[in-house]
Design goal:
Blueprint lengths: L5 H15 L5 H38 L8 H45 L7 H6 L1 E5 L2 E5 L1 E2 L12 E5 L4 E3 L6
Parallel strand pairs: 3-4
Antiparallel strand pairs: 1-2, 4-5
Keywords: Membrane, Transmembrane, Transmembrane helix
Length: 175
């Protein structure tokens, strides 16, 4: 707040009386002076902000490149040209993540199977060469009796009868 001179108050009262035809008292004149000073300060701040906004708008306009197309097809081709590399890269990365995820899960399942069943590697040839059929809701491994005279036994296809102990021997391979 600044000091208000008598001359300023007289001028303010005169302007008010000339404009509205009513005489103003001293307190009203002081309040009006304070309000006008505050208003002048706010007006200068607003003007400074407007100047800064105008400068920023000029900077933005200088940095933006406007592109005009003759028809919609040109615009679509331009848009596809901009986005296609990113879309292709995103698809490739998604496919790699999916492949890694499924491969890792399959590996973990197989690793767990081998850990749970220590003899699983010994059954590999039997599983590869064996023939499985379904009969009356059950699955069976089909094998024929081996010809022991020839000395050859086909793994996964033939068995040897051990008559002494009443059991069947299924060859898994040689060590």
């Amino acid at each position: 707040m600044s000091e208000i001179s008598t001359e300023q108050m007289t001028r303010l009262k005169g302007q008010f009386s000339a404009k509205y035809g009513i005489e103003m008292d001293d307190w009203s004149a002081m309040v009006m002076t304070e309000i006008s000073e505050r208003f002048m300060f706010l007006t200068s701040e607003v003007n400074r902000s407007v100047i800064q906004i105008d400068e920023a708008a000029k900077n933005i306009k200088g940095k933006v490149n406007q592109i005009n197309f003759r028809n919609n097809n040109e615009a679509i081709i331009f848009g596809i040209g901009l986005s296609l590399p990113f879309a292709a890269m995103g698809t490739l990365i998604s496919a790699m993540v999916f492949w890694y995820s499924t491969t890792t899960r399959e590996y973990e399942v197989r690793k767990q199977l081998i850990e749970d069943y220590r003899n699983a590697p010994s059954y590999a040839k039997l599983m590869k060469n064996g023939k499985v059929i379904e009969h009356e809701g059950h699955q069976y491994l089909v094998m024929g009796k081996a010809d022991q005279k020839s000395g050859d036994v086909f793994i996964g296809q033939e068995y040897i009868a051990d008559g002494n102990l009443g059991r069947i021997l299924i060859p898994l391979g040689k060590k």
